[in-house]
Amino acid sequence: MVDPAGMGISGVGPVGPSLPAQAGKGARAGEAGGPSFREILLDSIREVNHLQKEADTAIQGLAAGTVDDVAGVFTAVEKAGLAFRTLMEVRNKLVDAYQELMRMRV
Amino acid sequence: MLASLDISASGLAAQRTRMDVIAQNIANAHTTRDAEGRPFPYRRQEVLFAPSSGSGPGVSVAEIRPDATPPRRVWDPGHPDAIDGYVAYPNVNVIQEMVDMTLASRSYEANVTAIETAKSMYGAALRILG
Known about the structure:
The structure holds 2 protein chains of 2 kinds.
Chain A: H1 19-26, H2 37-64, H3 70-102
Helix pairs in contact in A: 1-2, 2-3
Chain B: H1 3-27, E1 45-51, E2 59-66, E3 72-75, E4 86-89, H2 94-129
Antiparallel strand pairs in B: 1-2, 3-4
Helix pairs in contact in B: 1-2
C-alpha cells in the first residue's frame, strides 16, 4: 500500500505487507539500482487487487453467514476503497503528466 | 496508516465479545441450576483483554473467566433448587451489568470514531495529490 504522507504508525509496524517490502522482494533492479517505477506501480496494483479480493471474500462470508465479525468485514471494505482511491490518484497524476508532455511544443 | 483501521477493528471485535458475555450474564441473572439440572447457580462471567501478540498490534480477549464472588442466597423453601430452604441465585448484579453494557457500547463508539478519524486523515493526505 502507498502511504501518501508517510503516516504509518512508527513503532507498531504495518499490519499487512507494506509496499517497499514487496517492491524490494519481487521487483527487478531498475537503472538506478532499485526497483523500476513500472515494477513499483505493478506491485501496488497487485496490493490493491489483493485488498479488493480480501474485501470480496469478507462480503461473501458475511452474506453466506460464515463470518460474524461485521466490523472486520466493513474495515476490509474500507481498506480496499482507500487503497483503490490512492491508486486512482496516482493514475490521474500519471495521465496528467503524460498529457502535459504531449501538449509540449517542439 | 491502514494499520490503525485493523487496530480499531480488533477493538470493535473485543467490545462485541464483551457485549456477548454481558448479554449472557443478564440472560442468566436468575438461573439457579446448571445444564445437567443440578442446583448449581450460573456464575457471572467476565472478560479480560490483553494487547494482541503475534498477528500485529491491537487488542484481543485474553480470557473469559467466572467471577469468584459467592452466589446470592435467598430463603425460599418451596423452590425446587432450594438446599436447606435457601436457593442460591447467580452472583449477577443486573445494575452492574447495565453499567458494563454502557461502557462496552461507548468503547465500541470510541473505536468507530478512531476508524472515522483514520479514514479522514488518509483522505486529507490524498487531497495533497489530487
